[in-house]
Design brief:
The structure holds 2 protein chains of 2 kinds. Helix content of chain A is 93%, strand content 0%. By secondary structure, chain A is mainly α. Chain A starts with 7 loop residues before the first helix and ends with a helix. By secondary structure, chain B is mainly alpha-helical. In chain B, the strands form 3 sheets. Chain B has a 3-stranded antiparallel sheet with strand order 4-3-7, with no helix packed on it. Chain B has a two-stranded antiparallel sheet with strand order 1-2. Chain B has a two-stranded antiparallel sheet with strand order 5-6. In chain B, α5 runs antiparallel to α9 and α8 packs antiparallel against α9. Chain B is globular, with a radius of gyration of 24 Å. The two termini of chain B are 47 Å apart. The relative contact order of chain B is 0.12. Classes of the chains: A mainly alpha, B mainly alpha.
Chain lengths: 164, 344
């Protein structure tokens, strides 16, 4: 057993014990340890990846929502605008119709009034004429009750005729 | 929460080490105390005695201070023999022959035929340390693995959160960059076993009274041998082609390059085994040399000074323990990566 020459016995022992240690550690320690390490690292990587994906999805969802909202707003504006237009048109039409109706009613009324007026006038004229006749008749009858009166009248008429 | 817990665990472990390191000095001192009483203190002998393997494990002086480890022998003449190493020592701690075997300078030979081959399979100090390290590593990582099973889908806690960063470090900083994302998984068990065996061997070796496991050349040789075998078993077509018929090199140069490449197959693991052996053994030698100063100068003042310096050297050794485990694993991964690399 010198310092620089390996002892045969120790060489053999070292081969056996280190070999055994290697095999035992390989089966009992390194295999489960490396496996667990890999599984854990994989799961951490998976978790990180899925977090990243979730984040991406969130932003996508968010922008989608934004887009949807924007679209809804535009659509709402369009609908409102159209509705306003339609209501305007309707109102305009209604107004026009109403004024036309009124116009017509007024014209009709005026016409009717005129006709009534004319009728009334005519009747009034007839009445007046009839009354005049009656009055005249009564007047004449009263004035011409005496012969003297009749004579003077005739004389007057004759005078007028002569004058002409 | 988990991080805080891990931090707590780390603080606890760190404190434990600091306390142990404080005792390191005392441990060494007590070991050395007897040597200095004898005439002519021989520092290099003491140091080498510590860093080398032995058939007994000497903790402290006295009757119970020494652990007599079992001796297992095989020789053609006598077959297998198992007995305690205490049989080689008489009452006065002098060596004596037993059952026809002689123990001399750590070598066991046959009494009547010193040149015959005797296979010494004894549970020596280093083998015992090796067993302790292996059991510690095994128990710790079985506990960690159990935590992973009971704690599925939850944050790591306790011992699991203490070792997970190291396991992930080996995977992400050692295996993946050197071997590649596709193939690294196949070599993870080897690299993790290698890393933690060396790390625990280095750190446990720093404990007072512990044996110098990873600073033993036989141990590092086997570790490098494993890397060598795994590298070459998994070497692909391109790897072998590169060695035996290096592409892009003119034919006359191939006669020089190819032997160099073939040599390179062996020098790579050789560099691994030498690096770890030297780094750890040198650390132990430096610490022991500093402690031995006290016995060389026979002075308490030097003893206090050297103990303080040894404390700091021990901290550096902790760093070296981690760095050497990293470097050995990293280079193993690099060689495996070079052998399995896909070329386009």
């Amino acid at each position: 057993m010198e310092l620089l020459t390996p002892g045969t016995g120790l060489l053999i022992w070292q081969i056996i014990i280190f070999g055994l240690l290697f095999i035992l550690l390989r089966v009992l320690a390194w295999k489960p340890i490396m496996q667990s390490l890999r599984i854990r690292e994989d799961s951490i990587q998976d978790a990180l990846d899925s977090a990243e994906n979730a984040k991406l999805e969130m932003t996508k969802l968010h922008s989608d929502n934004q887009k949807l909202l924007e679209e809804a707003r535009v659509e709402r504006d369009a609908i409102l605008k159209q509705a306003r237009h339609v209501s305007d048109v309707l109102m305009e039409e209604a107004k026009a119709e109403a004024s036309k109706q009124t116009e017509k009613m007024i014209t009709d009324a005026r016409l009717a009034i005129n006709i009534e007026k004319k009728a009334a006038m005519a009747e009034v004229k007839t009445q007046v004429a009839a009354l005049s006749l009656q009055i005249t008749e009564k007047l004449l009858r009263k004035n011409l009750e005496s012969d003297k009166a009749q004579k003077s009248l005739i004389e007057e008429f004759v005078k007028d005729i002569n004058l002409n | 929460m988990a991080a805080k817990q891990a931090n707590n665990t780390f603080t606890k472990v760190f404190r434990a080490f600091l306390v142990m390191l404080l005792f390191t000095g005392f441990g060494y001192n007590s070991v050395l105390a007897s040597s200095s009483e004898e005439e002519g203190f021989n520092a290099s002998e003491v140091i080498l005695h510590h860093v080398m393997d032995d058939h007994v494990w000497h903790f402290v002086d006295g009757h119970y201070g020494t652990l007599h480890l079992p001796i297992i022998l095989y020789s053609e003449a006598k077959g297998f023999d198992i007995f305690s190493s205490s049989n080689f020592y008489d009452e006065d701690h002098n060596l004596k022959p037993y059952k026809g075997y002689v123990l001399e300078h750590g070598h066991i030979t046959l009494e009547n035929n010193p040149d015959a081959f005797v296979l010494d399979l004894s549970i020596t100090k280093t083998v015992f340390m090796l067993m302790i390290t292996a059991v510690v590593v095994l128990l710790i990582f079985i506990a960690v693995a159990r935590k992973y099973k009971t704690n599925t889908g939850k944050a790591p806690t306790g011992i699991q959160s203490f070792f997970e960063p190291i396991i992930v470090f080996v995977r992400d900083e050692v295996a993946k960059p050197n071997i590649g994302d596709k193939k690294y998984e196949k070599f993870m068990p080897f690299l993790l076993s290698l890393f933690f065996f060396i790390l625990f061997g280095n750190i446990l070796g720093l404990l007072p009274g512990a044996a110098n496991l990873t600073g033993n050349i036989a141990v590092t040789t086997v570790l490098a041998l494993f890397t060598f075998v795994i590298t070459n078993i998994n070497g692909n077509k391109h790897y072998w082609k590169h060695i035996f018929w290096t592409p892009g090199v003119p034919l006359p140069l191939k006669f020089i390059i190819v032997p160099v490449e073939i040599l390179g197959v062996f020098t790579k693991p050789f560099a691994l085994l030498i690096r770890l052996f030297v780094a750890i053994t040198a650390g132990h030698i430096v610490m022991l040399a500093l402690i031995c100063l006290a016995f060389i100068f026979q002075s308490y003042a030097v003893g206090v000074g050297s103990t303080i310096i040894v404390l700091f050297i021990s901290l550096i050794e902790l760093l070296v323990a981690a760095i050497q485990a990293y470097v050995f694993t990293m280079f193993s991964a690099l060689y495996i990566g070079m052998a399995t690399e896909e070329h386009h």
